[in-house]
Amino acid sequence: MVKQLGTEVVVIGGGIMGASTALFLRQRGIQVVVLERDLCGSRSSGVNFGGVRRQGRSLAMLPLSQRAHQHWGRLTALIGTEAEYERSGHFKIARSEADMDSLVRYAEKTRDCGLDLQLLDGAALHKRFPIGGAQVVGGSFCPDDGQANPRLLSPAFATAAARAGAQVFEHTPVLEVAHNGQRFVVRTPDMEIRANVVVNAAGAWAGQFAEQCGEPVPMRIRPPAMGVTEPLPFFLHWSLGVEGGSIYCRQVRRGNVVFGGGPGLVLDDTRARNRHTTVWAQLPQLVELLPQLKNAQLIRTWSGNEGALPDHEPIISESSRQAGLYHAFGFAGGGFQLGPGVGDVMAELIAQGRSSTPIDAFRIDRFSDPACST
Amino acid sequence: MIGSDFYLDDPRPADGPPVIVGAGPAGIRAAQTLLAHGLRPVVIDEAPKAGGQIYRRQPDGFGRTPKDLYGFEAGRASDLHQTFDRLRPQLDYRPDTLVWNAQGHSLDLLHTAQRTADSLRWRDLIVATGATDRVLPVPGWTLPGVYTLGGAQVALKYQGCAIGDAVVFAGTGPLLYLVAYQYAKAGGRVLAVLDTAPAVQRYKAAPAMLAQPTVAAKGVYFLSWLMFHDVPVHHGVQLLRAEGADRVQAMVWKDAQGAEQRTNCSAIGLGYALRPETQLADLLGCEFAFAPLHRCYVPQIDADRRSSVPGVYLAGDGAGIMGADAAEISGELAALALLQDRGIKTDAARQAKLRQQLDKTQQFRQALEVAFPFPDDWAARAPDELVVCRCENITAGELRSTAASQPQGDINRIKALCRVGMGRCQGRMCGVAATEILADTLQVPVAQIGRIRGQAPIKPLPLDMTVVSADQEASHG
C-alpha cells in the first residue's frame, strides 16, 4: 500500500548536507521530508576524518567555510550535542622550504578572511609543537580550527532536524523523481511524495541523479583512506596536516590516533575500503611525523564513497534545467566542516531565492560552460 | 557501476597454487588432500606450529606426552601432527604469519616474528580460520584470574601451566567438562564445575546424542570421572559475579534451588561454547546468513564447502561450529571441491561419504544445543554496570541506553554511537554479548541486530612493520 504524502521540500540524502539543510529549512518554518537510503550519516558524512578545518581551503570556499564556522561555534544550541567537537587548532606542517613558501603565500592571500593564521619557523615550531623530528622546517597554525567525531555528529544533525519537525525516513531509497508539470513526485518503495522543491544531497550517488535530470557533471568517486591506532596516552593536541597532502592525523580524547591520506579502494556501488598499498605508505609516514607512535598498533581501517569534481570544488546550486531542483554534493575531502554552512545556504536559497554567501564558483553548469572546461 | 579511478579491479589469476589459511585439523586435512592429488598448496598459519587450537602443539623441549595433553584425542592429535610433519617438505608452509587483510585476490600478510609485510595472490583459497570462545561476561570478569575456557586450555596445553591453583570452571557446553577434566587429570585443583544448563536437558538430548555414540560416551566419561574424583558438578546454576580485590577470589552463583552460593577460588575458566572466526571470509566478500543453530551470522556454503565467492572454500569451524572431527572432514571436502573445480578427477564416492558424515555431525550438534542450551535469560539478567566491551569499557547499561534511541537496532550504528566493539578486539570478544543485550533491550530477534562489519586489520598491526614486497606471486609447485 503506497502512502501519499505532500510537503514543501523533499531532501534526498540524510548525510550532513541533507540533514542540515532540513534543519535550517525547519528553522525558517518550511515543511521538509528527508529520504535516506541507509541510516542518516552512515556513509561519507559519518566515516570521514572529522577535521573541522578552514585552513587550506580555496579562496572561493572560505566565505562559506566561515559561515559554517559560526554555526560550529554554537553547535550545542544548534543540534543539542557537541559530538566531541573541539577547537583544538589545526596545524599544517611544511617539510621543505618550498612547502613553507606555499604556506606563507596562503597566509598572505587569506589575511582578511578571519583565519588568524600563525606562521612558525623551525625553531619556534619545535619549541611549541614538539613533533615531527628534523624533517619539519616550519608550519602554519590556525587556532580556532578543530575536530569532531563524524560518527556522532552526522546522525545528530538528522536527529536535530527531526526534532525540529522534519519527517526523516531511513532505509528509504528513492526510486524515481518525476515532475507532473506542477509539482515533483518522488517515489520510494512504499511512499509517493509530492513537493514543490527537491534537494539532491545524495553524496556519492548524487551525480547519477543529476544526470537523470539532464545536467550531468564529471563527478568521480574518491574514497578516503582512513585508519586508527589503539588508544595511547594523550599527547597530540592539534589536528595535523602536511602541506602538499600525504598524511593527516588527530588524536581523539579516548587516546586513539585517527589518520588518513592517499586513496582508498572502491569495492562496488556502495562500499569502499582502505587499500593495502595505501596502508603501507601511511604507516611509516605516521611514525616519521609522530615518533611516539613507533610501538603503537593499527586496529582498524575504513573508507567511504565520496564524490569529487575535477576542480575540487563542490556543487551548491540551483538546477540549470529544472525550477525547484537544488543540488548540494561533490564535497570529497572537505565537506564535514562545511555541512552547517551548506545547510544554511541551501535553506536560504530555497526560502529567499538567493544566498548571502557567494556560491557562484559552485554552480552546476560550470562544466558545461566552454570558458570553464578543462 | 559508479565512476572512479580507485575502483577495485582484480581479476582472478589463471594459475597459482591453492592457498590454505589455518593449519588446524581442517587446514591439515585440506593440505593432505591437495597433495594427494598432485597440487602443492601454500599453508599460512598464525601459530608457530601446525595443529590449530584444539591440537595445539607445544614449544620445543616440552616434557608431557600427547596422552597427558590430549587424553582420548591423543591418537587423533598425534596422527594430525605426524601427517603434517610428513607432508611439510612438500608444502609451501608459512608459520607465524597473520593474514590481516584480503583485497581482491590478494591476501595481506604480516610475518609476526620479523614484523615484515607482503601480499600473496591466490587463485583458490581454503579458509580454515577456526573459532574463538563465545564469551558471556559476568560482573567481575575483567579481574585478573578470570580466563575463557579456551584460554585456560591453551595455558595447559601450550604452556604447561594452570590458570590458578584453585579453579572454578563455569558456563556451559562440552568444553566446560573437557577442560575441567583435563585440569583435574593434570593435577590441578578444580573446586567446582558450574553448568548453567539444567540437568534435565541432558536427558532430553540423550536419544539424539546417540547419533555419535563414541563422542557421547566421552562426555559421559568426563562427567563420571569428575564426579568419581569428588569434583562438585552443579547443573542449572546462575552465575552472579566474580569477586575479588586485586584479582579474583570467589565465584558467586545461585544453585538450581535458587540459593546463593559462594566458591572461593584463585581463578575462573568461563565459556559458553565457541563462535566462528569469520572476519577473513567477510573481507573476502563471502555472503553471510543467520544460522539459528549458531545463533549468529555465518558465511554461506554449499554441501561441499564452496562459499559464494568463486575460488573460496570454507573449512572447519569458521563456517559454523562443528568440532574438530568435523573440521577434518570438511577440510578434505573443501579440498576435493577445489580439485573438482580445477577439473581434477576426484572420488565421488568418497565425497558422498564425507558429506554423510558431516550430516551426522550436524544432527549431533543439534543435540548438543539441547543438552547445553544457550542461556536465553543471560541478557535480561545482566546488570547495567556489567562491562560488556572490555577494550572500550562499555557497560550493559550504556548499550541499553544507546539502543533505546536506535529502534532499528543495527549493531554497526550502535557501535558508532557508543564504541562497543571498537577496540583492539574489534568485537571478536564482546560482539556476541553486545548482540544479546541489544536484542533483549529492543525485544527483537538476535538476527535483526545484524553483525559487526569486518574491517582490516583482522588483528592489530604494528605501525613500524616493514613492507618487503607489495605483490608477491605464490611460488609454483
Automatic annotation (TrEMBL), chain A:
FAD dependent oxidoreductase domain residues: 9-349
InterPro entries in alphabetical order: FAD-dep_OxRdtase, FAD/NAD-bd_sf
A GO molecular function held by the record: oxidoreductase activity
UniProt keyword annotations, A-Z: Oxidoreductase
Any one of the GO CC terms: cytoplasm
Keyword Oxidoreductase: yes
Designated name of the protein: FAD-binding oxidoreductase
Gene source species: Comamonas piscis
From TrEMBL, chain B:
Any Pfam family the entry gives: Pyr_redox_2
Domain FAD/NAD(P)-binding: 19-328
Keywords: Oxidoreductase
InterPro entries: BFD-like_2Fe2S-bd_dom, BFD-like_2Fe2S-bd_dom_sf, FAD/NAD-bd_sf, FAD/NAD-binding_dom, Metab_Enz_Cyan_OpOx_G3PDH, Opine_Oxase_asu/HCN_bsu
PANTHER family for the chain: ANAEROBIC GLYCEROL-3-PHOSPHATE DEHYDROGENASE SUBUNIT B
Name of this protein: FAD-dependent oxidoreductase
Residue stretches making up the BFD-like [2Fe-2S]-binding domain: 387-439
Keyword Oxidoreductase: yes
A molecular function GO annotation: oxidoreductase activity
